[in-house]
């Protein structure tokens, strides 16, 4: 639990049993989570498991077809999508990128670039930026609008290990400085930002949720990743026992394919505050199912 977070603060966004249905199938169902001011929530899950869809539902970019999605009145959202719809054949400076979709006074552009450590690259062409510099430019662009919630879809894509640690440190310091809530989508199934308050693992539904295990504090982890990494990264250990195929059917761990998840599984069977790191989970019949919402 971090000092910035007020446990009493009303959620900025909250989803209850939310799902999206498109082109004859459910992309994701039964999604429950909320993000409060100062809180960091990380969505993980395999490709196509509904991470981006859930984040888009949370901020209203995609409409939920079931369940409830509530947002604080007047919520300001800073969204860094996985991909930008930009014509990369055209030269584009970092400064121009900052004002591409909405005007921003020059001094605010400079301040935002300064805050993410790339003030010296204001005149550089976006095409020439490294992966880490590009993600910083996108962060600056989102932060310049002083959002209540920052939604980052895979912010460490194309970034090496040390760059990843530096970016997570930056995200933490942005949270500490502004108190904004952060909804992060991670491409890594098992290693998440240590500052994460809640990990939500999606697999077409909420598969499990919990805090990142405190293994990052363990001597073994420090030996493996180094002390600096151990401060920033934590392991979230779990197993998936089934995969949702693109045609809507479900492939189970034994290779069998059925039309649905097993009926007793429900759409989501979270076991809150899953903190043991050796203990995988599956669709065990005797496990407590989370059908809230
Ligand atoms: N607008 C849409 N219309 C129809 N299907 C969609 C739409 N957006 C996403 N999908 C499908 O929904 C599923 C979930 O996609 P989503 O992008 O949420 O997954 P993800 O977990 O973020 O995946 P990745 O890790 O690959 O980014 C995918 O099968 C995708 O093809």
TrEMBL record:
Give the protein's recorded name: Zinc ABC transporter ATP-binding protein ZnuC
Name the family: Belongs to the ABC transporter superfamily.
Residue spans of biased composition, Basic and acidic residues class: 240-279
| Region of interest called Disordered, as start-end residue ranges on this chain | 240-293
Q: Which Pfam families match?
A: ABC_tran (PF00005)
Q: Which GO terms describe its molecular function?
A: ATP binding
Among SUPFAM superfamilies, the record links this protein to:
P-loop containing nucleoside triphosphate hydrolases
Instruction: Name the domain of life this protein comes from.
Output: Bacteria
Cite the entry's keywords alphabetically: ATP-binding, Cell membrane, Ion transport, Membrane, Nucleotide-binding, Translocase, Transport, Zinc, Zinc transport
Question: Could you tell me which residue ranges the ABC transporter domain spans?
Answer: 13-228
Q: Which organism is it from?
A: Peteryoungia algae
